[in-house]
Specification:
Blueprint (H helix, E strand, L loop, with lengths): L3 E4 L9 H17 L2 E6 L9 H14 L5 E4 L4 H13 L3 E4 L3 H13 L15 H9 L5 E4 L5 E6 L3 E6 L7 E3 L8 H10 L4 E5 L3 H13 L6 E5 L2 E2 L15 H7 L3 H10 L12 H7 L10 E2 L2 H14 L2 H10 L5 H8 L9 H9 L9 H10 L9 H13 L4 H12 L7 H17 L5
Parallel strand pairs: 1-2, 2-3, 9-10, 11-12
Antiparallel strand pairs: 4-5, 5-8, 6-7
Helix pairs in contact: 1-9, 1-10, 3-6, 6-7, 9-11, 15-16, 15-17, 17-18
The structure holds glutamic acid (GLU).
Length: 445
């Protein structure tokens, strides 16, 4: 059967690198298997889901280069969920329960006080027809619980290996709230069946949902898919990334100037046995991906490490990978400019600083007028190449007797107005004789 996976975010906020880790692992797996990825928007919660967040998710995935074969919105699919509910009611697997949250809490406390696990006691199953009628007449509306089969559920997790869960240790999960709205569990399974999902790959925070969901697949007469639960991205304090942290959302990182491939390389390789290094394409990432490489411990998300990775990526990107974006920023200079400056960039936008240095206008900083004056006289005629700077420096040294920092620093400050930067042997030919002359004379150029 062709591999079909899904990425199923809730559009209740902007997605972050942790969500992208899930999306990427799904994408890489599908890519490696020649399968397809479905984007499923889990938007049954009408109060918290918005069309703007859905667009944000589409935009973020597109920016990262993660494509999807099909997109479905759970809010369009209630008829499917309703019919699954009817089936489960008819087979006796879905039963009404009337306890209020306070009553449930009380039960829980009592069980804990007696040293028992706080598992729902199924009292609702004991209600007679009259008792139910009485509760409903008093205005109580039922929520609906899925009757678990009390047996061992076993699956071979793609990441965690053999998993056993004794369903008797679990409460029958509520599938439908008293106001008729759905919790995540049932729509997810109904969609996984309807869309022919072969592998459910998601974060470890969903491990606890898997045993009830496997039983739900079976109760709906479907073969459960394979499951894989990857480790989550956590911050230095051990907290998982949250949609509330806007600065660390994909949108926030993009605005900060972090490259899509840096985000993807980081999200896919942190917390694996592979080194966290920049990759030049998602295909390249997919080639080295293997579930066996995922660590069982949480994966660190360190914004500082991501920024360093971003710089490393820029330093190795060929001109062809950035040519269009540089030209959109009004930056010329071609490949020679890119090769001269790329190792000085933290974000691509920094290229504008060096373009200004090369192309002007720039207010030079004169700290030693006599060295600069000598340099003007010694500037050779154009065309200039990578040897020009060394010859010029040697000539100025000979005439003035200055050497080392005393020689180079005044020239660099006059030519670039900065103490540090790309090598002058690369910059000087790009600056050219007219601008270099003016700057060495202390004129803006
Ligand atoms: N909407 C769920 C989430 O964002 C999807 C979980 C799943 O993949 O089954 O966590």
């Amino acid at each position: 059967m062709a591999v079909t996976v899904r990425f199923a975010p809730s559009p209740t906020g902007r997605i972050h690198a942790g969500n992208i880790r899930t999306a990427l692992i799904n994408w890489m797996f599908a890519h490696a298997k020649g399968g397809q990825l479905i984007l499923r928007l889990d938007d049954t919660d009408a109060k918290r889901s918005t069309a703007a967040f859905t667009r944000g998710i589409e935009e973020d995935l597109t920016w990262l280069g993660i494509g999807w074969a099909k997109e479905v919105h759970q809010s369009d699919r209630f008829a499917l969920y309703d019919s699954a509910v009817e089936k489960l009611k008819a087979s006796g697997r879905l039963y009404p329960a009337y306890e209020t949250p306070e009553e449930l809490e009380l039960k829980r406390k009592r069980q804990l006080a007696r040293g028992r696990p706080p598992v729902y006691d199924r009292a609702a199953l004991q209600l007679s027809t009259e008792e139910r009628a009485r509760l409903e007449a008093a205005g109580r509306k039922p929520h609906w619980r899925f009757l678990l089969e009390q047996r061992d559920v076993v699956w071979d997790d793609l990441v965690r290996g053999q998993q056993h869960v004794d369903a008797a240790s679990l409460s029958d999960p509520v599938l439908v709230r008293e106001d008729g709205t759905y919790l995540y569990t049932l729509p997810s399974v109904v969609d996984d069946i309807d869309l022919g999902i072969t592998h459910v790959i998601r974060g470890e925070d969903h491990v606890a949902n898997t045993a009830p969901q496997i039983q739900l697949f079976l109760a709906l007469a479907a073969e459960p898919p394979a499951f894989g639960h990857h480790n989550l991205l956590v911050l230095a304090d051990g907290q998982a990334l949250s949609k509330r942290d806007r600065a660390l959302s994909i949108e926030g990182l993009r605005k900060e100037g972090i490259e899509a491939l840096a985000v993807a390389s980081y999200a896919a390789t942190t917390g694996t046995s592979d080194p966290v290094v920049p990759h030049e394409s998602l295909e390249e990432l997919a080639q080295s991906f293997d579930f066996g490489k995922l660590s069982r411990a949480p994966a660190r998300f360190d914004p500082h490490e991501l920024r360093l990775l971003n710089a490393k990526l820029l330093h190795m990107l060929p001109f062809s990978a950035v040519a269009m974006r540089l030209s959109a920023m009004g930056i010329g200079g071609g490949e020679a400019f890119w090769n001269a400056v790329r190792s000085n960039l933290a974000v691509l936008a920094d290229a504008a600083i060096w373009w200004r240095v090369v192309n002007g206008p720039l207010e030079p900083v004169i700290t030693d007028a006599s060295i600069c004056k000598q340099a003007v006289v010694l500037l050779p005629p154009e065309p200039w190449d990578e040897q020009t700077w060394e010859r010029l420096a040697a000539d100025v040294k000979q005439v003035t007797g200055a050497k080392g920092k005393a020689l180079f620093q005044p020239l660099r400050l006059a030519l670039t107005a900065r103490e540090h930067g790309p090598e002058l042997k690369h910059l000087l030919p790009l600056i050219g004789k007219a601008r270099a002359t003016a700057r060495l004379q202390g004129k803006a150029a």
